[in-house]
Amino acid sequence: MSYRYLKIITILIPTILIGGLEFLRHSGLFLQDISMTTGNYLITILVFIVSIVFSNWMFKTIEEKNRRISSEGELRAIYEERERLAKELHDNIAQTLFLLKVNLKKGKINEAQGLVNSIDSNLRQAIYNLRTSPLKPVSLSSRIESWLEDWNTVSGIDLDITIDINEGYFTPTEEVQLFSIIQEAFTNIRKHSEAKCATLHFHTSPSKWELMIEDNGKGISSDDFPQNKYGLIMLKERVQKIGATIDIYTEKECGTKIKINGGKGH
User: Fold this and answer.
1) What span, in angstroms and rounded, lies between the C-alpha atoms of 48 and 265?
2) Which of 23, 94, 155, 212 has the highest CB neighbour number within 10 Å of its CB?
């Protein structure tokens, strides 16, 4: 039922109930058996009962509509994120294939091999993102752990994971952004850090949460910044979308630490 009909019913019920009863009373049908005072009491009680029944029904209907709208909005956000990832993957692979062709023409076999590995990694990441249906409930912890296992296999970088997340703590939209943040951060580690090991610690509490990602690589110097710039910008944009804050600590040859903090309800 649409909101328009709910409005119409809300207007008509009190009018018909009170006006109709008053009309019947004053028409003489009930005046002989029911006094004016008794009639007033009966009308008050009847209106009260009808109001309770109607209000409960109406608010349940509105709540159901709001839940459906919210669910559709969250699902749309997930599909929009997938479309963005598909476009990003297309552009990335197209650029990598162009560089691969150039390197093969120049006989740079080692560089070409690196580009092939990059394409393989990007495809694995995309396949993982598309493998799970948005309609199939999978916990955020499970998604993160599964993806990082694949990342560890591809990168060969030692990995230490600690995840303590209450199920349902984040909205589906927040989960999409957080999962993409983790993917972006660890993709940057694999591509640019030359690290031997990396860590992820993700904890939630009733009032706040914290995500920490760290590696022991070469860090980000001013010389390295151009190649890391796009990834860092993407990280910051995603963090802003969920109302959290991000701090990046890095020093040349001393690794990089990313701390993201947010509050419950953001």
Assistant:
1) 37
2) 155
User: What is the extent of the structural domain holding 19?
Assistant: 3-67
Task: Decide if 169 contacts 182 (C-beta within 8 A).
Answer: no
Does the residue 115 lie in any domain? no
Long-range contacts of 77-80 (CB under 8 A, 24+ apart): 77/172, 77/173, 77/176, 78/134, 78/172, 78/173, 78/176, 79/134
Strands across the sheet with 197-204, in order?
158-164, 197-204, 208-215, 256-263, 245-250
Q: Look at the chain and report how many structural domains it folds into.
A: 2
Q: Which residue has the higher pLDDT, 117 or 169?
A: 169
Q: Are 162 and 259 members of one domain? A: yes
34-84 residue pLDDT tens = 666 776 777 778 777 877 887 787 788 778 877 777 777 666 766 776 676
* pTM of this structure: 0.57
**Assigned domain for 125 exists:** no
The burial of 35, by beta-carbon neighbours within 10 Å (0-12 exposed, 13-18 middle, 19 or more buried), is given as exposed
Q: What residues form DSSP beta bridges with 98?
A: none
Residue with tokens 């910008």: 233
- Determine phi and psi for 220, rounding to 5 degrees: -115, 110
Residue 91 has pLDDT above 50, yes or no: yes
* Residues 59 and 145 grouped into a single domain: no
Pair 142, 264 in one domain: yes
145 and 258 co-located in one domain? yes
Give counts: helices (H), strands (E), the chain: 6, 5
Write down the pLDDT at residue 231: 66
Find the Cα–Cα–Cα–Cα dihedral 231, 150, 88, 133, rounded to 10°. -130
Q: Is residue 12 part of a domain?
A: yes
The phi, psi pair for 212, rounded to 5°, reads -125, 125
